[in-house]
Amino acid sequence: MSDSKCEAHAAESVAYLNRALIRLQDIWEEIGIPEEQRLQRTNDVHKHIKGLLDLMIAEEEELKKRLMKNIESCQEELNKLCSELQLPPFEEEEGCTMLQVEKNCRTRLQVMRGHKKQRMEELKGLTAKDSELCDILCTTPFCIDHESIPTLNQLEAYRTYLDDLTKEKERRHDEFVSMKREIISCMDDLERHPETSFEADVMCEDEEEFCLSTDNIVALKLLLSQLQERKAENELLCSALRTKIHELWDRLQSPQEEREALSEHMTKSKKKNIEALQAEVKRLEVLKMQSLKSFIEAVRAEIALLWESCYYSHEQKHAFLPYHDDDFTEELLNRHEAEVSTLKTYFEDHKELFQGVTKWHENWTLYLELDRKANDPMRFNNRGGNLLKEEKQRTDLQKSLPKLEKSLKAQIDNWEEEHGKEFLVNEQKFLEYVQQQWDHHHSEKEKEKLDRQMKKSKQIQEDMLYGTSVRTPSKRRLAGTTTPGKVRRLNGTSTFTTPTSFLSSGMGGTMCQKSIQKPPLSASKSLGVKTPGHGKTPRALDRNKENLSHLNRNTPSGTLRESCRRLLNQM
């Protein structure tokens, strides 16, 4: 379509040129211009038209050359930028005119130049941030060519590196601020001022000016550690001085007014506090030397308490011979104080075990007390529910004591395995000591049981011999027996009478078996009741003796009496 239009324009131009030449010929002819001049003029028109067309062609050729040159330069720059930006090369679409190619190249080139500018500006910003962080942290800058265009991967790696570096800076800054606060506190407690330029930089108010390099952080930690060690040494010294002061106060029985005068120095550990404590110790030491006897006696009292806490045996106590020395000298005091120190160390090394042993002793003592109360006949006079509480407590202790012993056994086994020696209490293995206590308790219980049986047997024997036991009257009367005596009241007191025919009756062995049965509770209460009657008791005893002699005479070979004795011996 465009080609036909161009041809139409060309044909129209040729037709117009022909009409123009014909019109010129007509004008020249009308004017009367000669033939030669008309030919000359026609040549001039031809030359003019040809020159004009040649000029136009030359201008268009120049335009074409410029377009081709622009396209070539754009393509070269595009290829270079794509290479620097690590992007795929620009490829022109087929079938495009020269003008379209040139326009596309210029547009693509502008986009590439924008990418380059953006990356370079980002690189510049990252470089500035890197430089700032390097100054603060004293680190090496990120390795990247600042003259060439960075790739997207390089920029991403640079950003990640700076993010990590920023976090490290914040971490170091927080660490610095925390350590600075502790350093200031330690220096204040030590009453110390900065001695070096580094310490002055640390104490500077502007925290942002401090270089957070690795070396500075290490030096900062070292400085803090040294200050903390000195502070700990001062605190340890003050603690030892305070302990010493308290011991001297207690042993010298210092009044409360003197103790309160030093109260302001009993908490802090500054230089002035140390000096005050040292002065007090020196003063008390002088007083101690002036009263050696009372002081040594006070130390001996402390040693006695430590012996009890450590469960020392008599042999171990007597092994410390200075304890019994009456020559009160400074050397004797020093030996006593050394013994106190040794005992305290020994107690601390075995503190957990001694506490367990103490707990067992306390529970064991309580258990024995509750067990004794459980066997006390007066416990039934209980008021307020104490009997049930004590019985429950006794039952709980009976269950908990074996568990505690098992736990102590495990601790003792571990201790003996760790120290390679036996754990002794009163120069005896603790578990053997525990077993002895249980065995002794069981033997005491058996002994009490036998004593009750013997007492009961003796009471029955006395009842049979003297006829003072109270017997529940039987519904059936034996042959030859009389009615039992009834209760008489004399002067308001109940009296039981036992007929003489009771023992003189011919009961054989049957009556002896009934007489030795356990008396009821009411009978046991009446055993101690005496028969009043203005001194008639001796006659009653004589009467009983007569009854017994009568019984022996009437019973062949004393069978009843011998049977009763044999039965009592068996019980």
TrEMBL record:
What start and end residues bound the annotated signal peptide? none
> Which stretches does the entry tag as region Disordered?
475-510, 519-538
Superkingdom of origin organism = Eukaryota
Which intervals carry biased composition (Low complexity)?
A: 493-505
Coiled-coil intervals? 57-84, 267-294
- Identify the Pfam families for this entry: MAP65_ASE1 (PF03999)
PANTHER family cross-referenced by the UniProt entry? PROTEIN REGULATOR OF CYTOKINESIS 1, PROTEIN REGULATOR OF CYTOKINESIS 1 PRC1-RELATED
Q: What is this protein called?
A: Protein regulator of cytokinesis 1-like
